[in-house]
Amino acid sequence: MPSITLPDGSVRDFDGAVTGRGVAADISKSLEKAAVCVRVDGELRDLDREIDNDASVEIAQFSVYADANGGFLEALADVGGDGATGDSGVEVPNGAVRQGDTGHGLGR
Questions:
Q1: Residue 66 to residue 100: CA distance in whole angstroms
Q2: How far is Cα 9 from Cα 3, in angstroms, rounded to an integer?
Q3: Which CATH number fits domain 3-98: 3.40.50.11090, 3.30.110.30, 3.10.20.30, 3.30.300.350?
Q4: 52-92 pLDDT, tens per residue?
Q5: Dihedral-angle region of residue 15 (phi above 0 means left; psi in -120 to 50 means alpha; beta otherwise)
Q6: What per-residue confidence (pLDDT) applies to 29?
Q7: CB–CB of 59/34 below 8 Å?
Q8: Distance CA 74, CA 69 (A)
Q9: pLDDT over threshold 50, residue 95
Q10: Closest Cα to residue 15, out of 30, 2, 31?
Q11: pLDDT digits (tens, 9 = 90+) for 25-54
């Protein structure tokens, strides 16, 4: 019965081994769809690798950015972003703005 600790400090308990994809799905369907990999106790892993022990888990996902010309850029969000501000720590190209961003990392 693994207990999974998320970056915000919340803990989710599972009846048996769970995959990173399963943890993402337990949080939300949209996160499950956007997830690309997980970090388990600091180790990057594939979403389908089982987690069978208590662990700290962070989920990485794609983010979409609007560029200065009205086009869109996609960037892989860095796992382990600052949970207090919602800032993923992703380097945004000059002139690009995260869609919905207010300029101070709280736009999500």
A1: 9
A2: 12
A3: 3.10.20.30
A4: 999 999 998 876 666 666 665 555 554 444 333 344 444 44
A5: alpha
A6: 94
A7: no
A8: 14
A9: no
A10: 2
A11: 999 999 998 898 999 999 999 999 999 999
Task: Indicate the helix (H) or strand (E) that contains 25.
Answer: helix 20-27
Has residue 98 got a pLDDT over 50? no
Place of tokens 């337990």: 26
Of all residues in the chain, what percent carry a pLDDT higher than 90? 44
Domain boundaries, the chain: 3-98
Our CA angle for 6, 44, 38, nearest 5°, is: 40
Tell me the three state secondary structure of residue 39: strand
Nearest to 89 by CA among 39, 47, 41: 39
Place of tokens 């200065």: 68
DSSP letter assigned to residue 78: P
